[in-house]
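Data card: per-record layout.
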Amino acid sequence: MTATVTLEDALSNVDLLEELPLPDQQPCIEPLPSSLIFQPNFDTNFEDRNAFVTGIARYIEQATVHSSMLNNFCN
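The structure for this 75-residue chain is written out next.
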């Protein structure tokens, strides 16, 4: 049997749930709203370019090793 619930009833049920005390007396830990400001930096003149290149080379090397392992297992 399906019961129909109106929007007003649903909203009043939500309001009642917000007033329901917590049984373990835990405080509400929901943070206050705050805004974020994101400023992307598309400058490619890295301070530590060598470290960046080394990191990328490491990932390329790992991908090559994984590829050769897959080729060996699949053949």
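Known properties of this structure: Residues 47 and 53 are 12 Å apart (CA to CA). The mean pLDDT is 82.

See the next section for split statistics.
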